[in-house]
Each structure stands twice: as structure tokens, then as C-alpha cells.
Write a structure and sequence with these properties.
By secondary structure, the chain is mainly α. The chain contains 2 helices and no strands. The longest helix is centred in the last third of the chain and has 15 residues.
């Protein structure tokens, strides 16, 4: 089987949400807990982004 060359200059972008600041997993979990503590539909985007950030860390 021949070797396959990979052009690393054209890698796919990160799947980590860009709008979430660099947080440790513990900090992210604490932010998520605060965000869902009181139901507020205005924070749904933040909650989804935090969940997405944690899901990427699990992968």
C-alpha cells in the first residue's frame, strides 16, 4: 500500500466554539451551572456554547 501524503496547510478549522473564552473544564462547568441556575431564555445561546465547549473536551 503506498504512503499517503497529507498537506497540513489545509487542515479543517477547529470545532471549538469561537465565542467562548479560554476556560478550564471546571471553569466552564461553573459558568454553565450559573447560566442554568435561573431559567432565562436570553441565555440559551450561552448555555448551548458552553455545552458545546464541554462536548468538544469529551471527544
Amino acid at each position: 500500500m503506498p504512503d499517503i501524503e497529507i498537506d497540513r496547510a489545509h487542515q479543517a478549522p477547529s470545532i471549538r466554539p469561537a465565542d467562548i473564552p479560554e476556560l478550564s473544564d471546571d471553569e466552564c462547568l461553573a459558568c454553565l451551572a450559573r447560566a442554568v441556575e435561573t431559567p432565562d431564555s436570553a441565555r440559551l445561546g450561552e448555555v448551548a456554547a458552553l455545552i458545546g465547549r464541554l462536548a468538544v473536551a469529551i471527544e
